[in-house]
Specification:
single chain, about 140 residues, alpha/beta, five-stranded parallel β-sheet, 5 strands, globular
Amino acid sequence: MVRLIRRRTSMETILLVDDNPLRASLRKSLLEGSAPEVVRALDASEALCLVESPEFAQALALVITGHVMTGISGPEFVAEFRTRMPEVPVLVLSAASNAEKEYQGISGVLVSQTNSPDELRTVARRLIVSAQKRTA
């Protein structure tokens, strides 16, 4: 049996940062049709370690994170992530109506209160396509 190995090209991966195992598993399953690969980080520290890998960073199309996390908060994580990867879009999922204020001044961040699986997939796909157009 011949197995073809597809070489990864840029902008294919979604990084899902979520410290809640059940919610993360559900979101990962929902997002798997939006990008060839969805990688889950258990927390912000792990996510920041992942983007240190040049191969991973090159393939990264979108980061999806929560606003409230254990350890580093969403705004702290996004600000630190921006210092490493200023062009990759970030989708922050939050039920808090005032969360958007905490991301003012950080470019490429969309705060969403969506709980709808269809809307999550649609927003993720739109952000990925938009980022690919900017880099093309």
